[in-house]
Design a protein that fits this description.
Layout (H helix, E strand, L loop, with lengths): L2 E5 L6 H6 L2 E4 L2 E4 L2 E4 L6 H11 L4 E3 L3 H13 L4 E5 L7 H11 L6 E5 L5 H15 L4 H11 L3 E2 L1 E3 L4 H5 L5 H10 L1 E8 L2 E9 L2 H11 L1 H4 L7 E5 L4 H14 L5 E5 L2 H7 L4 E6 L3
């Protein structure tokens, strides 16, 4: 069976990783002088606490080459095909580290690296599709071919509660962050062609804003593959999550509505209270 690996930015829960037999290669989160493995020895809440204390965001970096080699080695030595998923190459060199690791192990003929052109559960959606095909007995070439067709159909967007973290990370000016806070502005960020692009700006409390966000997506949601939809958040209240879940349930489209918490890399850039609804479109 083809082994599926993803970097840690796919934001899949431990339960989903076990169900689909997916292994994770962690990116690095650097808080001052200390370096951590995403999802292993630091939590998003730890990151928020550090960020607020130091008035800056942690730096993030690609996985370590030795860790990638360590993860790939047993599969390469066993002659097993592997597919590795990475966060968009526009955002990180994670994919290149995976390729270098395969080369170092003389396993490039066994390891296929896929640039997801996405982030968070935008990657996770593709990972689950690949893992399902692997469990059905498809080979790496067949799986990669199907993923290439699905990749442009992933719909990944999210709404940011606070502009403070985007400002600290250099993705938003101080003036815009101040104005956004005063006016209660919440930008929608859309992932397109591997990049994060600002879209509509919503105004008001997050309950109202998030209902507007999903209502705006209703036409697209009705054209989604019915298998699954993700609600991915970086620390939202249960009340907000249930509100969005109930809305999606009411559409009677999806076989599965999955709720996941964004990992450290995504959370460190977007801050608490961010929420997105992610799915694969039929066309």
């Amino acid at each position: 069976m083809v082994k599926i690996i993803s970097d840690s930015t796919c934001d899949l829960s431990e339960e989903l990783l076990q169900k689909y037999e997916v292994s994770i290669l962690p990116l690095h989160i650097i808080c001052g002088e200390k370096e951590f493995d995403d999802g292993q020895d630091i939590s998003p809440d730890d990151i928020y606490q550090w960020s607020d204390e130091h008035k800056t965001t942690p730096k993030t970096s690609a996985p370590a080459l030795d860790k990638a080699m360590e993860l790939l080695r047993p599969y390469v030595e066993a002659g097993q095909e592997v597919i590795c998923f990475s966060i968009s190459e526009e955002m990180s060199t994670s994919a290149n580290v995976m390729r270098l690791a395969a080369e170092e192990l003389d396993g490039s003929h066994l390891v296929t690296v896929i640039d997801s052109a996405n982030l968070s559960t935008g990657i996770g959606l593709l990972v689950i599709e690949a893992a399902t095909m692997a469990q059905e007995g498809k080979n790496a070439k067949e799986i990669a071919g199907e993923i290439e067709k699905l990749r442009p159909l992933v719909r990944a967007s999210f709404v940011v509660d606070t502009l403070v973290y985007l400002h600290r990370g250099g993705r938003c000016s101080g003036l815009a962050a101040m104005a956004g806070g005063a006016l209660k502005l919440h930008p929608k960020i859309v992932v397109e062609n591997g990049r994060m692009n600002p879209s509509k700006k919503y105004r008001g409390g997050m309950n109202k804003v998030l209902m507007e966000y999903v209502n705006d997506m209703e036409k697209d949601l009705k054209n989604a593959k019915k298998d699954r939809v993700f609600i991915t958040h970086s620390g939202c209240s249960n009340e907000i999550i249930e509100m969005i879940r109930n809305y999606l349930m009411g559409l009677n489209i999806f076989d599965e509505i999955l709720v996941t918490r964004a990992g450290g890399v995504i959370s460190s850039h977007c801050g608490p209270g961010t929420l997105g609804v992610l799915f694969i479109s039929k066309s």
